[in-house]
Amino acid sequence: MSAVAVLGAGSWGTALAIQLARRGHQVRLWGHNQNHIDALGRDRKNTRYLPDCPFPENIRLSADLSASLTGVEMVLAVVPSHAFASLLQQIKPYIGKTPFMWAIKGFEHGTGRLLSEVFFDVIGSHHAYAMLAGPSFAKEVAANKPTAVTIAASNTALAQSFGQYFHGSAFLCYTSDDLIGVQIGGAVKNVVAIATGIADGLACGANTRAALITRGLREITRLAVALGAQQETLNGLAGLGDLVLTATDDQSRNRRFGLLLGRGENPEIAKQQIGQVVEGEGATFDTWTLAQRLGVRMPITEHLYQILSGQRTLKEAFESLLNRHIKEEQN
To answer: Please, what is the end-to-end C-alpha distance for the chain in angstroms?
Structure first.
């Protein structure tokens, strides 16, 4: 089988490394923190996030980036979205023509650019690339629980070739050539998940949760289509599937962040309690900026932006949403 580099040794990077190793690949799992890598190597598992999932023998750990990339047939990046551009700059001298993939959901923070645009800027649009997205919690993937994801690339044949690395052992890959739709679905569902968490933290009830998920999907679809995505993509795994997962299950750090806010917790304290990057917080600002630029109506996103930026209280935001005028549902 192939030698594969996984760049990023957090919970999600570790889980995907385990899946790749399960498929028989020789996996090089890289992390930037030598102490963290040493701990993973000593324990042969990610004790903090995935304590019940020991590493297969064919996972090798390293904090040496150039060594991790030497001689591999595919590179998978699994770092926070704000670190993506920096990672690309670091690997540029070593990657050559090696196919590159990322399993990251979010925008380039501060610019609102899609991660594909960042990739084209740094590495180039002619390089073989793909993205993995869809409803997939790290703990369940690592535990080999049945999971279905979307692999998106510039064409379905290329997506198929990337999917072959992962497909099997209860991990099902579906392909798409709608990279924009898959990226928007993956990034903006985190925004809706925070809003849904807030509503549940306020004990608004199941009706509210269902309404936020449904209308949130409508907002995600409007934004994606405005950027050139295919509407049906948002009805699939990378849209509806990922949104339902993230907005309803407490394994989601974005939902948990919203729950804590809804219960009156300070945002900074809430993030400390979660102990992992809450991608949806930055994505809220980036999504709202992008929506304004494109003239796309996104009231849930707008109100969450106002909450996180201190312009409205939770009570004021929900009262405003509940006082909206009657509209046609498909608008």
So the answer is: 49
CATH code assigned to 180-322: 1.10.1040.10
Cα–Cα distance between 7 and 39 in angstroms, integer? 17
Sign of CA dihedral 199, 205, 209, 211: negative
- pLDDT for 180: 98
Contact 222, 120 (CB under 8 A): no
Three-class SS of residue 62? strand
Give the homologous superfamily in CATH for domain 3-177: NAD(P)-binding Rossmann-like Domain (3.40.50.720)
- Of 4, 41, 40, 45, nearest in space to 21 by CA: 4
In tens, the pLDDT along 203-222 reads 999 999 999 999 999 999 99
| Residue 97 bears catalytic tag | no
Instruction: Tell me which of 45, 97, 139, 189 is the catalytic residue.
Output: 189
CA distance 130 to 119: 10
For the chain, what are the domain ranges? 3-177, 180-322
- Phi, psi angle pair for 311, to nearest 5°: -85, -25
pTM of the full predicted structure? 0.95
